[in-house]
Design brief:
There is one protein chain. By secondary structure, this protein is α/β, with parallel strands linked by helices. The chain has a single domain (about 10-250), classed as Rossmann fold. About 45% of the residues lie in helices and about 15% in strands. The protein has a 7-stranded parallel beta sheet with strand order 3-2-1-4-5-6-7, with helices on both faces. Helix 1 packs parallel to helix 2 (about 50-60), helix 1 (about 25-40) crosses helix 9 and helix 4 packs parallel to helix 6 (about 165-185).
Length: about 260
């Protein structure tokens, strides 16, 4: 993550706003959480790994922001309910949701078992569904809400050896557009971001250096994204500046896959 300075943020853009970022313990989720908090929001830092969530919260607090670390598996609807309503019980409002939690089960299609697909869909698709079901009614009551779903450029172009992940990320695009149409009249905006290759711990741990290099060679900008470069457009889509944007899918890929 690049070192953030005060000049990188829109000071108090989210003052008084309350929200949750899922998968906030590292990578893009951590960058989004830190950015929103530094722009004035109270952030529920949600992750299945509470230690990672607490590390993100410590970064937020060291930067002068406020939030709360929450442990939940987003594929578990009861855990999502408990987390969302814990935040709502404190502030009696809920403004923002970033559905970032995810996992991957790579492998050749014919070798993948049903469990691999179900696990990926459980987090990416049902995890998003669970969070939206809990948050949208609260947003509708106040006549305003903002949701950003994290898809992937692989949801657009696909790639071999990643059928569960590509399918789930493509599904999030359809879900985003369906929700945007359904809830626009209620004051709730729903958009999606499609990152390209991003320098997260998951990429470092799971993707071979050879594959990373090949991806970078095909990227017109000639490098991976920093997580902060994905957090910035997410922050924009959550802001009042994007007040007439819903159902959009923003590619943030350095030109890869265009």
């Amino acid at each position: 993550m690049r070192e953030q300075t005060e000049g990188n943020f829109h000071c108090n853009r989210f003052k008084g706003k309350v929200g949750i970022v899922t998968g906030a313990g590292q990578g893009i989720g951590r960058s989004v959480s830190l950015r929103l908090a530094c722009e004035g929001a109270f952030v529920g830092v949600l992750d299945w790994n509470i230690s990672s969530a607490e590390e993100t919260l410590e970064l937020i607090e060291n930067a002068g922001g406020v939030g709360l670390a929450l442990q939940a598996d987003v594929s578990n609807s009861q855990q999502v309910h408990d987390s969302v309503h814990k935040i709502f019980s404190i502030f009696n409002r809920f403004d923002m949701l970033v559905n970032n939690a995810g996992l991957d089960r790579p492998g050749g299609f014919l070798k993948l078992c049903d469990k691999s697909f179900l696990e990926v869909f459980g987090v990416h698709i049902m995890g998003t569904v669970n969070c939206v079901k809990e948050c949208v009614p609260l947003m509708i009551k106040q006549g305003d809400g903002r949701i950003v779903n994290l898809s992937s450029i692989y949801g657009k172009v696909g790639t071999k050896g990643e059928a569960p992940y590509c399918t789930a990320k493509a599904g999030l695009i359809g879900l985003t557009k369906a929700l945007a149409r359904e809830f626009a009249s209620k004051g709730v905006r729903v958009n999606a971001v499609m990152p390209g290759l991003t320098a997260t711990p998951t990429i470092r741990d799971m993707m071979s250096a050879k594959y990373q290099e090949a991806f970078i060679r095909e990227t017109p900008m000639g490098r991976m994204a920093d997580p902060d470069e994905i957090a910035a457009p997410i922050s924009f889509l959550l802001s009042d500046e994007a007040g007439f944007i819903t159902g959009a899918v923003l590619e943030v890929t350095g030109g890869w896959g265009m």
